[in-house]
Amino acid sequence: MTDHLTVATWNINSVRLRMPIVEKLILDEGPDIICLQETKCPDGNFPFAPLRKLGYEHIAINGQKGYHGVATISRRPFLSQEKIDYCAKGDSRHVCVDVDFAGSRFSLHNFYVPAGGDEPDPEINDKFAHKLAFLDEMGERFASLEGSQMIVGDLNIAPYEHDVWSHKKLLKVVSHTPRECELLEAVRAAGGLTDVMRNFVPPEEKLYTWWSYRAKDWSAADKGRRLDHVWTSPDVAAAATRMEVLRAARGWEKPSDHAPVLTRLQA
């Protein structure tokens, strides 16, 4: 039994390519659990050995070759683990583990929501149609959630005005269109979940987790979006004592275009 837990979530954009910065996160921050997205790695090729050497002996993966993929790695044992398919596509986008937190069972969901392509019109863009259908199915599942819950991951939507560098300029850009933003909020509401990141950083303040590779100087331009999220049931939100977007990681050697988000829970 433990009375504290630190969870990191990070779209790593290829776990094998970026193992050095995963190791840096572990050595610098030492989170109890790390939820990775876009691992781009089939289960048989996942880098178990270096992670276990660093003390992360418990690993739940849902991977596929070259695309998508999620992995939850932990110092703490899992009480159970489950892979869940969405939209009957066979994509590796969700893994759920149950862990002990202060003597109670705690469900941790690791998600990678489809990006949705470039055109925000489901009639002409199958990828956007898939994204909307995926979110609808998430909402249906979340409506039946019970007990202590934590949902983390790259949800590929920046729902609030100050989750993007320019609300006006991005209203017609996939990830910040009104349709997506409203649907994501409906998904969160269906589960009765709290946006923990915005408990720590008020909605009127800018908050980003992603900066495009296209920017010559991503930090100076600072044209970011908050695509990565931490949602919890109200009891877990009440236990959150720290939230940090590790912005510096975006500048590490061979970085992901996402920064890790760390959340600390204290019973």
Question: In words, what does this structure look like?
Answer:
This protein is 25% helix and 28% strand. The protein has 267 residues and is of the alpha+beta class. A hairpin with a 2-residue loop joins strand 6 (94-101) and strand 7. The radius of gyration is 17 Å and the shape is globular. The mean pLDDT is 96. The longest helix has 17 residues, at 126-142. The chain has helices at 19-29, 48-53, 126-142, 167-170, 178-190, 196-200, 218-221, 234-239; strands spanning 4-11, 33-37, 58-62, 70-74, 80-83, 94-101, 104-112, 148-154, 194-195, 210-211, 224-225, 228-232, 240-245, 261-266. It has a single domain, classed as Endonuclease/exonuclease/phosphatase (Deoxyribonuclease I, Chain A). A six-stranded mixed sheet has the order 3-4-2-1-14-13. A six-stranded mixed sheet has the order 5-6-7-8-12-9.
Quickly list its features.
single chain, 267 residues, alpha+beta, Deoxyribonuclease I, Chain A, 6-stranded mixed beta sheet, 8 helices
Quick overview:
The protein contains 8 helices and 14 strands. The chain has helices at residues 19-29, 48-53, 126-142, 167-170, 178-190, 196-200, 218-221, 234-239, and strands spanning 4-11, 33-37, 58-62, 70-74, 80-83, 94-101, 104-112, 148-154, 194-195, 210-211, 224-225, 228-232, 240-245, 261-266. The strands form 3 sheets. The protein has a 6-stranded mixed beta sheet with strand order 3-4-2-1-14-13.
Strand order of the largest sheet: 3-4-2-1-14-13
- Beta content comes to 25-35%
Beta strands, count: 14
Q: What number of structural domains do the residues give?
A: 1
Structural class: alpha+beta
Measured between the Cα atoms of the first and last residue, the distance is: 11 Å
Mean pLDDT over the residues = 96
Radius of gyration based on Cα positions:
17 Å
Low-confidence stretches: none
Count of DSSP helices?
Answer: 8
Q: Provide the CATH superfamily.
A: Endonuclease/exonuclease/phosphatase
